[in-house]
Amino acid sequence: HARVRKEFWGYARDEKLSMNDMFLEKYQGIRPAHGYPACPDHSEKETLFKLLNASEQGITLTESFSMVPAASVSGLIFAHPQSKYFYVSKIAKDQVENYAKRKGVSKEIIEKWLATELNYM
């Protein structure tokens, strides 16, 4: 994320943050990642990997959407100065049913993928 801010997108070329400032997220923008509170569904990595042709870079996904090699990372970078981290609260049954329909998978699959995020069971 720091390299994107300073080099690739260059909107914070002169940024000089201490490690403490980094931990306190005093930089511009956010980098939520699949599987974390803002994007709890790891399966969306599959879409991201297809868009990026990640396998051509030697990065693949396991059946449970873990990245191989294990040192691989992915995230979505938003540079807007008003971007703020957020989390998705517990998910209700009707939301799971709707999400399953939109993704074209069974409700049981979504419940498996998002088991720790459900407000029922």
Overall pLDDT level:
94
Helix content: 25-40%
Main sheet: strand order: 1-2
Major sheet: size, sense and barrel closure?
2 strands, antiparallel
Order of helices and strands: HHHEEHH
Proportion of β residues? under 5%
From the N-terminal CA to the C-terminal CA, the straight-line distance is 37 Å
Query: Got a strand count?
Result: 2
Low-confidence stretches: none
Q: What overall geometry do the principal axes of the alpha carbons give?
A: globular
Specify the number of helices: 5
Radius of gyration: 17 Å
- State the secondary-structure class: mainly alpha
Could you walk me through the main structural features you see in this protein, from its secondary elements to its overall organization?
With 121 residues, the chain is mainly alpha-helical. The termini are far apart. Helix 4 packs across helix 5. Strands 1-2 form a two-stranded antiparallel sheet. The protein has helices at 2-8, 19-23, 44-52, 93-103, 107-113; strands spanning 60-61, 67-68. It contains 5 helices and 2 strands, in the order H-H-H-E-E-H-H. Helix content is 32%, strand content 3%.
